């Protein structure tokens, strides 16, 4: 018997911390682990976590699924050449999953190399992958946040009621409670990138406090608490490059204020961000000093996938100003990369304005028309704004603020910045960092924008997901033409709440010239993950003869290893192929089904190739090429 997946799930699949594996709660009440890194190389398999029959009703009701921080799979060159259906080399027991229905927490091992942990019959006496089982009760309300901390043997639980959190040991009966946690969600938590430390934002006796926790080599818990120089702190953020630095963001009601401290509580006043950071435009000085116009967006992130020495600070205030600045780890100063002021009106003679038609036919999925007139930016009631857009800000502004900039996304080289105003959810602003006197382009979609994702390596490739009930994905890859669009072959019968993400962890660094390699060019081609609440699909985006093609990596013939069929007595942790959703792809006459690769075609203007800019920069950016 094979473990099969038809691209459907009971809950939205969850990506592992290294971005190489996908955990799926399947409709058969099992948990499937799909190695996307192997699928990108043509080796397809699914690992299955054994769940005894008595626990399966709990699995069906789970609303929280989390990976442990340890890396799942190795990706060395030796592993790529192993002729096997799996190359899992993780140390036994180090990769765990946490599941919760907000009242109960279960920890599962994802180590599947021992067939004894994978019985084929559902017998109550047979050992399963369950390693810990906590009944949290109801006295503190439901679980507001559940995350692994330190390693795979400890979990942090923050409850919705009582301002209470607890550190659970998953290897022994131990529970350490933490009182006075300020928020019952991710705003109160900051974790170091290596997970060895984490900080909690707390409030006791009208004073904001931060407590930093550490687990030493002897498994002894230690902590350090210190007061914050804030009036009403809204979030705490750990330095994304791993330094022991914390940023604490104050409420926008008290202006622009971000305080920096070390993990020991020492203030770093020279790093602090105040109102002066937004005073490059003197026309905004007086208005920005008014009450209530403070910091409405704050994010601290790595500058790129490959740079561990440079971080980006992304800020926005109530005056619709955006500041993107970079800071090296060995420097006290930050360098502005983009300084943006959103206008109240758009001049179509200076800005490329593309308006998507509200009509669509089978032959013409979408059409954008150029608008050259000047117009005011429409203000939409906040009640009608799509609230399911990507949560990029570490500090949330008040929900009633119509001037909030709720999406800010720089590309990998910080040369282009994409933004969205909460009051104009269908309008995407694209800015050139070196010239922000006016937007370079404004794209108005027929549906509200849900997510935007720049390619992790190609600076001019941007994907956009909207709140459309159809699985549309838009791609903007040329600076002077509108986006192109297509449909992802994914099941839409149960959910249309779509999300996406590039998968740089699945990019092959090996020699792409080896036979049957699925990487393109210099080996930097990056898969794209597309999910809903109940389905998923993964594949490559590329252009071919004026069209863009989506090529699934989960549904194609085996290219290297051959398919492995297992009988009932074999270890069911491997399988030969992954079936994808219910929309069958059409194939040409004479082409066998085994040769069909699932594709989605995008409309593209015939003159797009003629409009390609000259120069090596645009060639490197992937214009008209595989992404």
UniProtKB/TrEMBL annotation:
SUPFAM superfamilies referenced in this protein's UniProt entry, alphabetically: DPP6 N-terminal domain-like
Any one GO BP annotation for this protein: microtubule anchoring at mitotic spindle pole body
InterPro entries assigned to the protein according to its UniProt record, in alphabetical order: Centrosome-WD_assoc
Signal sequence region: none
Region spans: Disordered: 380-403, 572-627
Cellular component, GO annotation: microtubule organizing center; MWP complex
Biased composition (Low complexity): 386-402
Positions with biased composition (Basic and acidic residues): 588-612
UniProt-recorded name of the protein: WD40 domain protein
